[in-house]
Design goal:
It is found in: Cell membrane; Secreted. 53% of the residues lie in helices and 9% in strands. The protein is of the alpha+beta class. It folds into two domains: 228 residues, MetI-like fold (Orthogonal Bundle), CATH 1.10.3720; 126 residues, no CATH class. It is elongated and about 125 Å long. Strand 6 and strand 7 form a beta hairpin.
């Protein structure tokens, strides 16, 4: 009996110490729990409850908002876009991260290379969205991507000589803006004709342009001049070549008979041309559209068909460094003796990569992929900033659709809450999977 009392007395201080530790732990954890409850638990529960009420929150509609999700074309489009994001972006990022992580092990300046690739992670999504919104501008003078595309295009394709030129009305030429232009009357060999144009700015005239001069036609040719029918100071007579008016060099002129091009010529520096080798008959002189076509403006990156791939590309720019660093950390943990043994056995680098590196990296690749899936489901900033207003609906994902429905003009917080619950339900399984993986790796 005395021994039992002694043992109990000895354990009481130990129990008291444990209770004090628990109370101290509660004191330290309580603020975090309160904050977590106020910022996470309460909003989630409130959103779940709010999703069962109408837009004003006054009438209980049950599952009506969830049914509306399945019948709203804009919401279905957002679900489709979210599916594209989940399938494409994590796969591309994981693949790019793996490829870059392997490459960085084989370059001398690996640290600098990783730093450059990881730098976009330091840029906020707002800033990244603005950067890519400007980069995707269709005007080549503002959008860097289209400036590059137009530069490459113009290197291999001839630009129209006079995209703003138009024929002087009522003076022998017919045709709409941008061409082609044809003579109103037919001409026989031996005739000459002057073709006047307006709408060419002085700074758009070629440097080698000379004073306009008519060419003399031969027995088997039609000749004439293509010129800017505007004399300095506004003097001169429309439809005739006046002193001070310049020729338009480099314009293609065709002689057409029965729909077939019989002869072609290019105007000289003074605008003169001569269509030779013509048999006797009636011909129409034509100036093709290629002379007046509008300049190539590049790709409309933010068109309805390309806006989602364009935004995904911006997302890849931001997150590739993240995937590369995580996969690189896993790659550095692979035992080198396994790789060296494979090389000694005659395995190629490709075989080592497929049969040793990837299987050993599988847990890391899975964690990176699932983490990116969770992040992609919540993407909002880039979509909202990069997509212009007219194509915003084509680019919407669940997060942007939820915001637009609730606060961006829809004012239907019941449907917005239902969308937020759906988004939460989609994210939770991936989060649970990731947490279990971390626990297993920790064990």
């Amino acid at each position: 009996m005395a021994d039992a009392l002694t043992a109990r007395a000895a354990t009481n201080p130990r129990r008291l110490a444990q209770r004090k530790k628990r109370r101290l732990a509660v004191v330290f954890v309580l603020p975090a729990l309160l904050l977590l409850g106020a910022l996470v638990v309460y909003p989630v529960l409130f959103s779940v409850g709010r999703s069962f009420f109408d837009a004003g929150g006054e009438r209980f509609v049950g599952a009506g908002n969830y049914a509306a999700i399945l019948h709203d074309p804009a919401t279905l489009k957002a679900i489709r876009n979210s599916t594209v994001w989940v399938v494409v972006a994590p796969l591309l990022l994981t693949g790019l991260g793996l490829m870059l992580a392997v490459l960085t092990e084989k370059v001398r300046w690996a640290t600098a290379f990783k730093l450059v690739l990881f730098l976009p992670m330091a840029v906020s999504f707002l800033a990244a969205g603005i950067i890519f919104r400007l980069a995707y501008e269709q005007d080549p003078d503002r959008g860097v991507l289209n400036a590059a595309v137009v530069g490459v295009h113009d290197t291999f394709a001839d630009r129209a000589a006079y995209p703003t030129a138009r024929a002087r009305e009522g003076h022998g030429l017919t045709g709409g803006a941008g061409g082609p232009y044809s003579t109103e009357e037919t001409l026989r060999p031996g005739r000459s004709i002057s073709l006047g144009f307006v709408g060419v700015a002085p700074d758009a005239m070629p440097a080698g342009a000379k004073a306009a001069a008519d060419a003399v036609a031969g027995a088997d040719s039609i000749a004439g001049a293509v010129y800017l029918d505007f004399a300095p100071g506004g003097a001169g007579t429309p439809g005739t070549v006046d002193p001070g008016e310049k020729g338009l060099p480099g314009i293609t002129v065709e002689a057409v008979q029965d729909g077939r091009v019989a002869a072609t010529a290019t105007t000289a520096d003074d605008g003169s041309f001569r269509l030779t080798g013509l048999a006797d008959g009636e011909y129409t002189v034509r100036l093709p559209t290629a002379n007046f076509a509008a300049p190539y403006q590049g790709v409309n990156w933010l068109s309805p068909a390309l806006v989602t791939p364009a935004i995904i590309a911006a997302y890849l720019w931001v997150w590739t460094g993240f995937a590369m660093v995580l996969i690189g950390a896993g790659l550095s943990a692979i035992p080198r003796d396994a790789l060296e043994a494979a090389r000694m056995d005659g395995a190629t680098e490709g075989q080592i990569f497929r049969k040793i590196t990837i299987p050993l990296l599988a847990p890391v690749l899975t964690v990176v992929f699932v983490t990116l899936v969770i992040n992609v489901m919540k993407v909002f900033d880039l979509v909202y900033i990069i997509a212009p207003g007219p194509v915003q609906e084509e680019a919407n994902v669940l997060a942007t659709r939820m915001w637009l429905v609730s606060f961006g003009g829809g004012n239907d917080q019941g449907l917005g809450s239902a969308l937020s619950v759906v988004l939460l339900l989609l994210v939770v399984p991936a989060m649970i999977f990731n947490i279990r993986r971390f626990r297993r790796s920790g064990a």
